Amino acid sequence: MSKIYFTKMHGCGNDYIYVNAMEHPIADPIAAAIAWSDRHKGIGSDGLVLIDRSPVPEADFSMRIFNADGSEAMMCGNASRCIGKYLYERGLTTKTEIRLLTLSGVKTLLLHIADGIVESVTVDMGEPILENPAQFVPTRGLTQGTFVSMGNPHYVIFTDNVDQVAETGRVLEHHPAFPQRCNIEFARIDTVVSGSPADTTPQIRTRVWERGSGITQACGTGACATAVAACLTGRAGRESDIIMDGGTLHIEWRETDNHILKTGPAAFVFDGEIYINE
Asked: Does residue 81 sit in helix, strand or coil?
């Protein structure tokens, strides 16, 4: 039996268990994610994140992320912000611009620091992928949504009823149109922007069903996908504030290079230790 040190962190309520795999390698991260994420019998989280050295020179560190059901995710915007805060405030780097290797490529983290504390992080999420695997998802009378990939698949539905997330999100995650399952966003425009340039940043209320985790307080890639979908459908310009259950993320779809910039907070919750059988 060995002792593993972990840190619980959250980005807008999207909470994960973080382990420094450089010091504490996890032999079976799938089993650990399932057991530790249980909110009644484990630590409680949306999943497990492993922080490690980068195996390639293009990045400074790497991340692997496992959902609460043990499935491995390609990328998580909220988790990447937390990693930036963890690395800097725990003294693992002095850089304020960190290159993080994920399964969906290298992401750049820009740390915004005041008095030695990382107050927020901007993540360059790269370019959205807009090929739609389904022209229409015919279920429960919903209107057509917009497919956006941010390294992981999202289907964004604009509706006045964002609270259908539990009932409808579960169905759509496993819809045949999405053979690898899909993250589902339900979004409502709370601030209508007219004129050019816009006088007000659009406020978009969004609730998300994450594949492998269910309802989460926030989803970084989901916020990006929602902002892109709002712009594509003429509901917003290239900047939006995405208001999720756990907080607000500012999204900019930069016109110069087509990249998505996501800015938001990250927070420590607590540190702990857990024993595992080897």
From this structure: helix
CA-based nearest residue to 157, from 176, 129, 138, 181: 138
- Residues 96, 85: Cα–Cα separation, whole Å: 10
| Active site amino acids | 76, 219
Q: Could you tell me if 212 and 71 are in contact, meaning their C-beta atoms sit under 8 angstroms apart?
A: yes
Tell me the pTM: 0.86
DSSP code per residue over 180-218 = T--EEEEEEESS---TTTTSSPPEEEEEEEETTTEEES-
Q: Which long-range contacts (CB under 8 A, 24 or more apart) does 137-142 make?
A: 137/172, 137/175, 137/177, 139/168, 139/171, 139/172, 139/175, 140/168, 140/171, 142/168
Residue closest to 236 by CA, chosen among 221, 218, 220, 224: 224
Paired tokens of 143: 């209107």
- The backbone torsions φ and ψ at residue 35, rounded to the nearest 5 degrees and listed phi first, read -70, -45
Please check the confidence at residue 9 and state whether its pLDDT lies above 60: yes
Mean pLDDT computed over 169-180: 88
**pLDDT one-digit tens code per residue, 80-98:** 999 999 999 999 999 999 9
Q: Which residue has the tokens 């993250």?
A: 183
Q: How many CA atoms lie within 13 A of 211 on its CB side?
A: 23
Q: At what angle do helices 220-232 and 77-89 cross, to 10 degrees?
A: 130
What is the biggest distance separating any 2 CA atoms in the chain, rounded to whole angstroms?
A: 63
Nearest to 102, CA basis, from 66, 131, 130: 66
